[in-house]
C-alpha cells in the first residue's frame, strides 16, 4: 500500500483501486487485487513480493482476491486463516509455493476458496477442509494432492458444496473399503475431476458422487483413464446437462439412454475407443435430447459408416467428428443447422464434393481437412460471413479459387487450402480482402508465376506456408511489411530469385487462440530450394530463430559472426550455396544446436575450437568445402550424441 500516491486524494484507502469499504463504518471489507489489479494495471504488471502481516488489521475483510499475481514462490501465509469473517478467498495462479496451510480452514463463514494453478503448492492431509461447513465453491486444481489419501472423506463433510474442481490434482486411489459413508445429500451441481488418472476406482467413485448429490448438472472426468463400456450410472441423473468423458479408455457403443436425458446439453466422448455405425449411434440419441443438445464431441474414436442426417439436432452449436472412419459423401440437407458454430469433420474418409454449407449462417470454425473431398469448391462458402477458421487442406479439391469464394469472410483468421495439388488460387492483383489472416497455408496449391500482391495487405500474419506453389518471381521487398508479426515462414521449393529483404524480424505476444497445435519456442524460416541470392546478414536481425533452412540457393558472401545470443536455434542448414569465409566463432555459443549443415559451399579455414561447446549436436556436415587443418580430436569427446 505504501506505493500509492501521497497526494491528498489518495490518502483515503477506500478510494484506492481494488479496495471496497462498508458504506457506514468505512471499514475495509473487500480487497480485489487479483487479475493484475496493481498500480501498473495498465501495463499488466502483477503484484510481487511478500504479503505483510498488517493484512491482519483488516478483521472485517469478507473478500480477499490476490489471484493472477506473482508472489515469487513464497508460501501461502498462514495468518490469512485468522481473517475470521472471510467469505471469499481467491489465491489462484499467484505463484505460491509449499504446503497449503491447515489454518485456511479456520474462517467458518468461507463460501468460496480458489487455489487453482498454484502448481508448487501441496497438501498431504485435507482434514482442514472439514471445518468449512459453509463452503460452496472449492477449486484445488493443479495443486499436488497425491499424498492426500483422505481427500474424499474431507469432501464428504462439505454438505454445502455446490462446485468441486480438482483438475490435475494427482488424486490418489481410494480402496473400495474406505469409501466414506454419506450422511445426507449435498447440493453439489458441478463435479470436475478431469486429468486425474485413476487406476481402478472410476465406477465406484461416480456411484458415490451420484449418491452424495442427486442434482449434478455437470460432470467432467476428461483424461481420467476410465476403462470399459460407458457405465449406466449416468442413466438416472435427470438433471445432468454436461458430461465430459473425453480422453479415457472407453470402448464399445453409445448407450440408448442418452436419448432420453431431457436436460443434456453437452456430451463429450472424444478420444476413446468407441465403435459403431454413425447412423445407428445417432438413432440412439432419438428422444428429448435431440432437440436440446448443443455440443457433441465424438472425435478420435473408431466410428464408421455414412454420415447421418443431423438436421433434427436443431439446437446444435458444436459438432466434432474428427479422426474417425466415416466415409461416403454428405447428402444435401444433412447439415441444416442454422445455430452451428463449430464443425470438425477432419481426418475421416469422406468423398464426393464439399457440401453446400451456406445454410450454416452462424458457423465460425470449419474443418474438413484430411479427407478425400473432390470436385470444385462452390462460391457459397463465401456466404459464411461469421467464419473465422477455414480448413480444407489435404483433399482432392480442384478448380479455381477466386475472390467470390472469400468475398464476405471479413472475420477470417485462418485459411488452409494446402495439399490440394489441382487447386488454383487466382486473385486479381487489385483485390484487397476484408480479412486479416493470422495463419495462411497454401502448400502445393497452384499460385501461378507471380507473387500474390493481396498478401501485402495482411499485417497480422504469424504463419505463412507456401512451398511448392510454382512461384518464379523476384523476392518482393514488401515482405518487410509482414515481418513484425511472423513466427513461421516457408517458401521452399519454388523458383524465387533476387535478394531476401534485410528487414527486422521480431517476436510478438502470440495470441494463438485459434492455433492450439502451433506453439513454437522460436522463429522458423525455410527458404530452401529456390534461387535466392545475396548475403545472409538478415539473419542477424533477430535472436529468436529456432529453425533456419536456406539450403539449395545462391546465397554468397561470408556467414556473419552474429550467433552469440541465438539460444533457441536447433537446426541450421546453409548447404549448397556459394558462401565463403570461415565458420564463425559464435557458432560455439549455439547451445541448443542439434543439426548443422554447411555442405557444398566455399567455406575455408578450420572448424573453430569454440564449437566443442555445442554439446547438443547430433549431426554436423561440413563436406565439400575448403576447410584445412586436422579433424579436431574433441569431436570424439564433446559430441556424445
From TrEMBL:
- Top-level taxonomic group: Eukaryota
Q: What is the lineage of its organism?
A: Eukaryota, Viridiplantae, Streptophyta, Embryophyta, Tracheophyta
* Gene Ontology BP annotations: defense response; response to other organism
Kindly list the places in or outside the cell where this protein is found, as annotated in its UniProt entry. Answer: Cell membrane
Family annotation (PANTHER family): LRR RECEPTOR-LIKE KINASE (PTHR48063), LRR RECEPTOR-LIKE SERINE_THREONINE-PROTEIN KINASE FLS2 (PTHR48063:SF101)
Output a single Gene Ontology CC term carried by this record.
Answer: plasma membrane
Q: What protein family is recorded?
A: Belongs to the RLP family.
Give yes or no: UniProt keyword Manganese. no
| Keyword annotations from UniProtKB, A to Z | Cell membrane, Glycoprotein, Leucine-rich repeat, Membrane, Repeat, Signal, Transmembrane, Transmembrane helix
Q: What is this protein called?
A: Leucine-rich repeat-containing N-terminal plant-type domain-containing protein
Tell me how this protein sits in the membrane.
Single-pass type I membrane protein
| Taxonomic source organism | Sesamum alatum
Matching InterPro entries, A to Z? Answer: Leu-rich_rpt, Leu-rich_rpt_typical-subtyp, LRR_dom_sf, RLP23-like
Query: What SMART domains does this protein's entry cite?
Result: LRR_TYP
Amino acid at each position: 500500500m505504501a506505493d500509492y500516491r501521497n497526494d491528498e486524494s489518495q490518502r483515503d484507502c477506500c478510494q484506492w483501486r481494488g479496495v471496497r469499504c462498508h458504506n457506514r463504518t468505512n471499514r475495509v471489507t473487500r480487497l480485489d487485487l487479483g487479475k493484475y489489479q496493481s498500480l501498473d494495471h495498465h501495463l499488466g504488471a502483477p503484484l510481487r513480493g511478500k504479503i505483510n502481516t498488517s493484512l491482519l488489521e483488516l478483521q472485517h475483510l469478507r473478500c480477499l482476491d490476490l489471484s493472477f499475481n506473482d508472489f515469487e514462490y513464497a508460501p501461502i501465509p498462514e495468518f490469512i486463516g485468522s481473517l475470521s469473517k472471510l467469505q471469499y478467498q481467491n489465491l489462484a495462479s499467484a505463484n505460491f509455493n509449499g504446503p497449503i496451510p491447515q489454518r485456511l480452514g479456520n474462517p467458518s463463514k468461507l463460501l468460496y476458496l480458489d487455489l487453482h494453478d498454484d502448481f508448487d503448492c501441496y497438501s498431504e492431509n485435507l482434514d482442514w477442509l472439514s471445518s468449512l461447513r459453509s463452503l460452496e465453491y472449492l477449486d484445488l486444481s493443479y495443486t499436488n494432492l497425491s499424498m492426500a489419501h483422505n481427500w474424499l472423506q474431507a469432501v464428504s463433510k462439505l454438505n454445502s458444496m455446490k462446485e468441486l474442481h480438482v483438475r490435475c490434482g494427482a488424486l490418489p486411489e481410494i480402496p473400495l473399503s474406505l469409501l466414506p459413508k454419506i450422511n445426507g445429500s449435498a447440493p453439489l451441481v458441478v463435479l470436475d475431476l478431469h486429468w486425474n488418472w485413476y487406476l481402478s476406482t472410476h465406477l465406484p467413485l461416480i456411484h458415490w458422487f451420484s449418491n452424495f448429490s442427486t442434482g449434478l448438472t455437470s460432470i467432467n472426468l476428461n483424461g481420467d483413464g476410465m476403462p470399459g463400456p460407458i457405465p449406466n450410472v449416468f442413466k438416472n441423473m435427470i438433471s445432468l446437462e454436461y458430461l465430459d468423458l473425453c480422453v479415457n479408455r472407453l470402448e464399445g457403443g453409445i448407450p440408448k439412454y442418452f436419448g432420453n436425458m431431457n436436460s443434456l446439453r453437452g456430451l463429450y466422448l472424444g478420444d476413446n475407443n468407441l465403435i459403431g455405425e454413425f447412423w445407428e449411434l445417432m438413432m440412439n440419441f432419438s428422444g428429448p435430447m435431440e432437440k436440446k443438445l448443443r455440443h457433441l464431441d465424438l472425435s478420435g474414436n473408431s466410428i464408421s459408416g455414412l454420415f447421418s442426417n443431423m438436421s433434427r439436432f436443431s439446437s446444435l452449436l458444436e459438432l466434432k467428428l474428427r479422426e474417425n472412419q466415416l466415409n461416403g459423401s454428405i447428402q444435401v440437407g444433412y447439415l441444416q443447422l442454422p445455430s452451428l458454430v463449430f464443425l470438425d469433420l477432419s481426418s475421416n474418409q469422406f468423398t464426393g464434393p464439399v457440401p453446400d454449407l451456406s445454410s450454416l449462417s452462424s458457423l465460425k470454425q470449419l474443418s474438413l481437412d484430411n479427407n478425400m473431398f473432390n470436385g470444385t469448391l462452390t462460391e457459397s462458402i463465401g456466404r459464411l460471413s461469421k467464419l473465422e477458421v477455414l480448413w480444407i487442406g489435404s483433399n482432392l479439391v480442384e478448380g479455381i479459387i477466386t475472390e467470390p469464394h472469400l468475398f464476405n469472410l471479413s472475420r477470417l483468421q485462418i485459411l488452409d487450402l494446402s495439399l490440394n495439388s489441382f487447386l488454383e488460387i487466382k486473385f486479381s492483383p487489385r483485390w484487397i480482402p476484408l480479412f486479416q489472416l493470422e495463419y495462411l497455408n497454401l502448400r502445393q496449391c497452384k499460385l501461378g508465376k507471380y507473387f500474390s500482391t493481396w498478401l501485402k495487405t495482411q499485417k497480422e500474419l504469424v504463419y505463412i506456408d507456401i512451398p511448392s506453389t510454382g512461384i518464379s518471381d523476384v523476392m518482393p521487398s514488401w515482405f518487410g511489411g509482414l515481418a513484425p508479426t511472423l513466427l513461421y515462414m516457408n517458401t521452399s521449393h519454388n523458383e524465387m530469385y533476387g535478394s531476401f529483404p534485410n528487414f527486422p524480424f521480431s517476436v510478438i505476444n502470440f495470441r494463438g487462440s485459434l492455433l492450439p497445435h502451433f506453439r513454437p519456442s522460436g522463429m522458423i524460416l525455410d527458404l530452401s530450394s529456390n534461387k535466392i541470392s545475396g548475403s545472409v546478414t538478415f539473419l542477424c536481425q533477430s535472436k529468436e530463430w529456432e529453425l533456419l533452412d536456406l539450403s539449395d540457393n545462391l546465397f554468397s558472401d561470408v556467414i556473419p559472426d552474429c550467433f552469440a545470443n541465438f539460444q533457441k536455434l536447433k537446426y541450421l542448414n546453409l548447404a549448397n550455396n556459394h558462401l565463403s569465409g570461415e565458420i564463425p566463432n559464435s557458432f560455439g555459443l549455439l547451445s541448443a544446436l542439434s543439426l548443422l549443415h554447411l555442405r557444398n559451399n566455399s567455406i575455408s579455414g578450420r572448424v573453430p575450437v569454440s564449437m566443442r561447446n555445442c554439446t547438443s549436436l547430433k549431426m554436423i556436415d561440413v563436406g565439400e568445402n575448403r576447410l584445412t587443418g586436422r579433424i579436431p580430436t574433441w569431436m570424439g569427446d564433446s559430441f556424445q550424441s
